[in-house]
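Incident review: delayed structure delivery

Summary: a single-chain prediction request sat in the queue longer than the usual turnaround. Root cause was a stuck worker, restarted by the on-call engineer. No data loss occurred. The affected request and its eventual output are reproduced below so the record is complete for anyone auditing the incident later.

Affected input:
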Amino acid sequence: MSDPIDEFSFLPEQAAEAGIEGPTPQGERLTLALPDGRTLSALRYRLDGDDARPVVTFLHGAGLNAHTWDTTILALGLPALAIDLPGHGDSSWRDDFAYVGRVLAPDIAAGMDAWTDGPQVLVGQSLGGLTAAAVAASRPDLVNRLVLIDITPGVDPSAGPTQIREFFAGPTDWATRHELVDRALSFGLGGGTRRKAERGVYFNSRIRSDGRVEWKHHFAHRAAAAAAAGSTTPVAEPDAVSAVLGEAGWEDLATATAPTTLVRGERGYVTGADADEFARRLPEASVITLPAGHNVQEDAPLELGAMLRGLVGDD
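Output delivered after worker restart:
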């Protein structure tokens, strides 16, 4: 696949694949300088040249990037913002590798302060969901609704499909993106077609100054280093602190004042028992199950977009 004219040139193709009609939103890459010298990057989507500010803000999961939400945003049909979490996409890596919700939340809040002008429906998947909960707890002025996608506090990342961990634990650089696409397809990843895998690889990789292709996100490099050292520690949350982080997440959800919805993928990481515990702790929250795996935004974007549009309409 040749490089596109710009990173949003895929949108018409994605809309056609999903059967989404109507005008294609205009995308814009945003960058914010953070006080410590790092940068935060995001994508803003507008309709028909409309200058309306975002009403929905999206946070992706570990190992992904803001473009994972493209088709969901096409289905949503509203102005939206999708932020690259620190250590992912075009946002800077953290030297301390502290990729947990409460640490990431201040950066996300800074981006929302800069790029939105009113409370958002804040949608977070996996690590992005725990980060969204921390934002909702610490900055309630930024969030009017909280939506968690296939994550609850305490869910063990190591319970996910082993092929994903093995995939990222492999080499961290390649001669071409074609090699990386081949690897993704060999692991059963990439969305089911070579074209979708090419799009995913394009957005999740970059070409270094020496011409080699490498992952953009920090997790792959950490996973490869751990594998080389013979470690079996999960990439996202070490076992030694997973319980502590889980309780922090429950505290954030209990503190958040925004109405909360859990969207569970029926083939995802959140089990029925996890959903029951969520409902027990948050009896006023709602739980919705969609026909999807962990990446609900990629497996069921039309259903997710329609659901989110309804939440915006309820406000």
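Verification: The chain has a mean pLDDT of 88.
Action items: add queue-age alerting; document worker restart procedure.
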